[in-house]
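YM 10:42: GTPase Obg sequence, as discussed on the call
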Amino acid sequence: MPRFVDRVVIHTRAGNGGNGCASVHREKFKPLGGPDGGNGGRGGSVVLVVDPQVHTLLDFHFHPHVAAPSGTQGMGSNREGANGADLEVKVPDGTVVLDANGRLLADMVGAGTRFVAAEGGRGGLGNAALASRARKAPGFALLGEKGEERELTLELKTVADVGLIGFPSAGKSSLVSVISAAKPKIADYPFTTLVPNLGVVSAGDHTFTVADVPGLIPGASEGRGLGLDFLRHIERCAVLVHVVDCATLEPGRDPISDIDALEAELAAYQPTLQGDSTLGDLADRPRAVVLNKIDVPEARELADFVRPDIEARGWPVFEVSTASREGLRELTFALWNMVDAYQAAQPEVVPRRPVIRPIPVDQTGFTVEPDPENRGGFVVRGVRPERWIAQTNFDNDEAVGYLGDRLARLGVEDQLLKLGAKPGCAVTIGDMTFDWEPQTPAGVDVTPTGRGTDARLEQNDRVGAAERKEARRHRREHEDEQ
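YM 10:58: structure's back
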């Protein structure tokens, strides 16, 4: 049986970038033909796309993990790795994307709207792209970046022109079923509808959509019952209609008190889309009141009695009966006029333009702070230093030397000296911790040695032949003395 799911938490993981290739061109009669390692491919991104054919978030309820493919590694002969394909995930119209802290990231309305939920990692550079005057044939390549991982919350807010609100069993589902082709499940339930019902209503040559928001109760704005799960579906409605049961036999209830109770919940509710540029604030939406079930004689008398009090608030009042279909035609045309007038009064929606914020020239792009967990140590934070750490293969001394040159040119060495860093102190960048050695020259041209090696990092603990010969001579002299 189909289920309506309007709120899910998904885990998105973009693809990793492919590693670069460290290769040297080899051809007959052309030894050491130069570096020809290609770059790694870019990882695929996870992209949310609005699809009009999708109406629920049910698929994410059963499959909350979404992962895009990774890029492939670069190859010799300057062949670049293949890029990972972007994974397009279809979501229904009206989906709101929130981050783990509840901050609004995207309001996806309109077919084809796209949002990059997780950005794919960039591919690493091959040694052909790293060749320079100082390193004519680098013996290393950069690693690919990790893809972005994010935990997102998707909330579906029903896109409808008219929202029907009221207490449970007020007749909202019955009203939707008689003014549209929707066929919600209707019976004399002691509880409310569990999912919103959408119906398309025709008013002459015009059509509009009506949403039956499941019944609300006092305290719904504070989470009582299932109020918070249903109040979100009225945020996009241009017109709110109170459906009042005039034939209820519950003690202490009457049309005026029902309306006041629901208005108090609407005023206390803080919507995610507060100040939506397309419809304005929820408190400013036009209201209408439908006095239902007037086919019952006592209900008709009650409707005639309370009608003047409701009209005094400036709201139009309609007396209808879903059983005898009395007053339905006038109601549909009046609702269309209200929807058309309200939408025409709203400012025209201007497509959002991309905002480009260039980085200031004097921005160094990193910070150096004392390490709170390691006395005498320092922590370097910044997008570029942390990215360079992730791209470095620490099993290759030449790659580590290249990293030191990049950090020195960025100004990390100078900043550590200004803060009083001592030789051998721990310096943490990203996930790596180093023993800082300021006497190691960095940022200067270094005479290359073998491929994959760096003279500044060479630590040869092997005992040479001359040292072994001298040690034997000392042992013999010591034995002769004994």
